[in-house]
Amino acid sequence: MALLSKKDRGLILDPLADNNPITIQVLGICSALAITAQLKASIVMALSVVFVLAVGNVVISLMRNIIPSKIRIIVQLVVVAALVIIVDQVLKAFAYELSKTLSVFVGLIITNCIIMGRFEAFALGNGPYRSFLDGIGNAAGYGLILIIVGFFRELLGSGTLLGFKVLGDPIAKTGLYAIGYENNGFMLLSPMALIVVGIIIWVQRSRNKELIEEN
Amino acid sequence: MEHVELFFKSIFIDNMVFATFLGMCSYLAVSKKVSTAVGLGAAVIFVLAVTVPMNWLLDQYVLRPGALTWLGPEYADYDLSFLSFILFIATIATMVQLVEIVVEKFAPSLYNSLGIFLPLIAVNCAILGGSLFMQSRDIQTLGLAFNYGLASGIGWFLAILAIAAIREKIRYSNVPAPLRGLGITFIITGLMAIGFMSFGGMLTGGEEKTETTDEVAKVEVQSQDTTEEDESLAEVSQEINNK
């Protein structure tokens, strides 16, 4: 990590745990919940957000001195929308099935509060290199939660990971299924994503008492 | 008939918050007090009811494949649908700016209590989500688009009202310390979403029947719908009264 000073390293590492965008800053919840029934969709979504946030942060940071503050929201939306169109077209070209699964949620990256939140809070006041690191860090913190939720929902809900049957075959009764294990189909329903995130928050805050809210 | 069905379907079955998790950020952040929740909910209803029909017109006459034929037959091959994100969000941002000016002028106290969240309606996923779902569900007429926007807004309003009422009450309960605030709100929302899933069977129940019974079933479902709505409204207002 000789490349990064201690302060810069904080930019990347803080959002992964103690300043996580989803569980602490409460940003970018919508997409975190809707597309996490499969691990693969979660990973693709996480990568898309890393791309959009890192590049967007750099662009906004480069333009921060020439954007009139009255219309900055519209400027930010245009930048994000352009980046999201790129992601959407790339997904449609190279992973058509997946882009069908993600459906409107790729488009909803535009209104993902995490993007606007970081633009407002960081990129408008910092240089491009640090904004880039901040973008990577926050998007990675977001992706981390997405992947954790996706992992548990796919594992417990359909007994697979990335489509591989890691717990055995439910029809041929091999592996865990031989001793009477059953998939919990409830995990595939969307409300369970909320409850899984709730449990992640619970675990995180009981490990770090400073994060506990008054009420 | 079509209108009534779409109206109740968008409020209860495809509820923005509980079925598609749109607008969760402001839903979580502004639901601490019932009064602010009502203000934001009303703003969302208004913005959705205006932007969805506007974006429907855009989609119909500019964006979709072949939409530009009104300019002349040589434009029939153009497909601008890849521009829909950027045009939809521009419409929304403009409308939100307008709402902000109107609210600041006529309801300054509401404006102050909404604070940062009014401009953030522009980036509320519920608003863009409404337009994108309108596009992907292929809504046929302008009237239906308006209906869809209005009903989705009302669904979102009900959801934020309910959670705000619950959060005002839960302050007096003994929640485990690490779950306080955000954690318990997530879990309550999850449970409410499971509750809302029970609405799911109401309109799809009639689909397998034959044409003639289908009509009867629909009417039945609608009367059921209205009573359900009354019940949940009564519940919510009771919750408010209780505080």
TrEMBL record, chain A:
GO process annotations (BP): sodium ion transport
Membrane topology designation: Multi-pass membrane protein
Location(s), subcellular: Cell membrane; Endomembrane system
GO molecular function, one term: oxidoreductase activity, acting on NAD(P)H, quinone or similar compound as acceptor
Family matches, as InterPro entries: NqrD (IPR011292), NqrDE/RnfAE (IPR003667)
GO cellular component: endomembrane system; plasma membrane
Principal location: membrane
Catalytic activities: a ubiquinone + n Na(+)(in) + NADH + H(+) = a ubiquinol + n Na(+)(out) + NAD(+)
Keywords on record: Cell inner membrane, Cell membrane, Ion transport, Membrane, NAD, Oxidoreductase, Sodium, Sodium transport, Translocase, Transmembrane, Transmembrane helix, Transport, Ubiquinone
Listed transmembrane segments: 43-62, 74-95, 101-119, 131-152, 185-203
Highest taxon listed in the record's lineage: Bacteria
Documented EC number(s): 7.2.1.1
Iron recorded as keyword: no
Classification via Pfam families: Rnf-Nqr
Function: NQR complex catalyzes the reduction of ubiquinone-1 to ubiquinol by two successive reactions, coupled with the transport of Na(+) ions from the cytoplasm to the periplasm. NqrA to NqrE are probably involved in the second step, the conversion of ubisemiquinone to ubiquinol.
Subunit structure: Composed of six subunits; NqrA, NqrB, NqrC, NqrD, NqrE and NqrF.
Membership in a protein family: Belongs to the NqrDE/RnfAE family.
Protein name: Na(+)-translocating NADH-quinone reductase subunit D
Organism of derivation: Leeuwenhoekiella blandensis (strain CECT 7118 / CCUG 51940 / KCTC 22103 / MED217)
From TrEMBL, chain B:
Catalysed reactions listed for this entry: a ubiquinone + n Na(+)(in) + NADH + H(+) = a ubiquinol + n Na(+)(out) + NAD(+)
Membrane topology, from the record: Multi-pass membrane protein
Main localization category: membrane
Subcellular location: Cell membrane; Endomembrane system
Keywords from the UniProt entry: Cell inner membrane, Cell membrane, Ion transport, Membrane, NAD, Sodium, Sodium transport, Translocase, Transmembrane, Transmembrane helix, Transport, Ubiquinone
Domain of life: Bacteria
UniProt GO molecular function: oxidoreductase activity, acting on NAD(P)H, quinone or similar compound as acceptor
Transmembrane segments: 6-30, 37-58, 78-103, 110-133, 145-166, 178-199
Region (Disordered): 207-243
Enzyme Commission number(s) of this protein: 7.2.1.1
One GO CC annotation: plasma membrane
Keyword Translocase found: yes
Compositionally skewed regions (Basic and acidic residues) per UniProt: 207-218
Biological process (GO), any one: respiratory electron transport chain
Pfam families reported in the protein's UniProt record: Rnf-Nqr
Enzyme class label: translocase
Cross-referenced InterPro entries: NqrDE/RnfAE, NqrDE/RnfAE_oxidrdctase, NqrE
Record text on subunit structure and interactions: Composed of six subunits; NqrA, NqrB, NqrC, NqrD, NqrE and NqrF.
Family, similarity comment: Belongs to the NqrDE/RnfAE family.
Function field: NQR complex catalyzes the reduction of ubiquinone-1 to ubiquinol by two successive reactions, coupled with the transport of Na(+) ions from the cytoplasm to the periplasm. NqrA to NqrE are probably involved in the second step, the conversion of ubisemiquinone to ubiquinol.
Name the record gives this protein: Na(+)-translocating NADH-quinone reductase subunit E
Species the sequence originates in: Leeuwenhoekiella blandensis (strain CECT 7118 / CCUG 51940 / KCTC 22103 / MED217) (Flavobacterium sp. (strain MED217))
